Amino acid sequence: MDRIILFISLFIQGIAFFIALFYLRRMPKFVGIFILILLSFMLLRGVLNLTGFFKAEISEILVLLVSIFIFLAIIGASNLYKEFDRMLKVLKGLWEIDRVILSGLTPRSIMGGIKKTMVELIDCDGFGIYTYNQAKNALSLYENYNLDDEIHKGIMEKENGILWKIIRERKYTMLSNSRNDNNFSDFLKSKNYSTLIGLPLIQKSNTLGALVFLSHKKSYSRKEIQYIEGIGRQVVIALDKIQTIERIKEMDIEIVFALVQAIETRDPSTKGHSLQVANIAVELTKIFGHSERELELVRYAGLLHDVGKIAVPEAILNKPSSLNEEEWKVMRKHPVISAEIVKPIKDLGEIEKWIFYHHERWDGTGYPEGLKGREIPFFSRILAICDTYSAMVSDRPYRKGLTDESAREEIKNYSGKQFDPEIVEMFLTLSKEFLKRLIEKTDAPS
Ligand SMILES: [Fe+2]
C-alpha cells in the first residue's frame, strides 16, 4: 500500500516540478527556486525509498498530502500570475488609449491608436465601431477590424438587426451559437462565428454608437467581459473628442470666436488675452505698411492663435504649479491644434501657418518645429511679441502683471533670441499709453 502511495506522490511531485519550472519566470525568483529545491529533495527521497537505499520514518500519506498541497499551490499561483500579467497588459492598454485620446490631433490618429490597442488587447476575430446619429436615427460603420461588408450589413440590418437592439435597449449583449441563442443570426453561424459581444457606447443620456466583437471562441469569462467594458468606456471618451473636433471644423468663424470665449472661460486667468494679442498685432502690422486684407487676417490670427487649447485638459491649463515634461508635451501641441481648427474655415486658410508657428523663437529654440530667423513666417513673429507682451502685463493667480516698462525691458532683452530684432524695434515705438489703451480695449480691432 505504501508503495502505491509513494508512486502517486512521485507522480504528483514530478508534474508539480515541471509546472514550477515552466512558470518559474512568472513567480518571484526566491519562491520558485525554493519550490524547485523542495520538490527535488522530495523526488530524491522518493526514488531512494523506492530503490530501498533509504528508509525514512515518515508517513507516506503525509508526503502525498504535502505533494498535493504543493501541486495545488503551484497551479493556483501560476493562474494568479497569469491573471496578473493580463491585468497589467490591460492597464497598459487603457493607459495607451488615454495617451492617444490626450495627444491625438485628428479623428484618424485617435481612432487609429485605439483600434491598434483593441486588436492587441481583446481576444476576438473581428470588431466594428458603429456610430449612431440620433437626429437622423441612422447607424454607420466608423471603424472596422477584420470584418467584411456583408457582416457589417448583417449586423446593422434595420428590422431585427442586432445592433439596433443594442442601441435601443442600451444594454450589454452577448449572443452565443453554442447556447442555441435564437438571436444568433444564421449568417453569423454560416461564417463560423460562435460569439457576438455588443456594447452600447453611452455618454450620459446620449447613445453615441456601439461596439461589436465577433469571435470563433465559444465563451468569455466575466473578467474578459469586464476588460471589454472598460475599453468601451474609453472608446466613448475618444468618440466624444472626435465628435467635438469634427463639430468645430463645421463651425463658421463667428462660432469659432465663441469658442475663444469658451477657452478663456476654461482658463479665466487668460481672459481677454486673445483680444489683446489681436489689438496689438493689428497696430504693429500697420507700422510695416501691410494691406487691409493682411490687417484683417492678422486680427483673426490674434483672436484664434490659442484656440487649440480647447484640446488641452483643464487640469493642465489651470495647474497652479509648473508643468511636468508630459504635461508640457500636451501643452506644446496647442499651436498645431489651433492651426488644424483654423484650416477648414473659409477664407482664413492663410493664417493657419502663422498660428502654427506662433511659439517659434528667432534663435530656433521654439516649437513645434524649431524654425529659425526668417524661416518663421513674418506674422508668426509679430504674434510672438504681442502674445508675450500681453501675457507679461496681465495679472495671473500666481503673480502680478509686470509694468509696461519691465515688459518692454524683457522684450528688449530677448531681441535676437526669442524675437525678431526688427519687429522688436518697431514694437518699442508704440507708446506706453497707446499699448495700455489696446490692452484695455474690449472690442475687436477693425
Ligand atoms: Fe499660444
Automatic annotation (TrEMBL):
List the Gene3D superfamilies hit by this protein, alphabetically: 3.30.450.40, Hypothetical protein af1432
Cleaved signal peptide residues: none
Stretches assigned to the HD-GYP domain: 248-443
Q: Tell me one Pfam family matched here.
A: HD_5
TM spans (from-to) = 6-24, 31-55, 61-81
Q: Does the entry feature the keyword Nucleus, yes or no?
A: no
InterPro entries with a match to the protein in the record: GAF, GAF-like_dom_sf, HD/PDEase_dom, HD_domain, HD_GYP_dom, HDIG_dom
Q: Which domain of life is it from?
A: Bacteria
* Alphabetical UniProt keywords: Membrane, Transmembrane, Transmembrane helix
Q: Ranges for the HD domain?
A: 270-392
Q: Does the keyword Transmembrane apply?
A: yes
NCBIfam families noted in UniProt: HDIG
Q: What is this protein called?
A: HD domain-containing protein
Query: Which organism's genome codes for this protein?
Result: candidate division WOR-3 bacterium
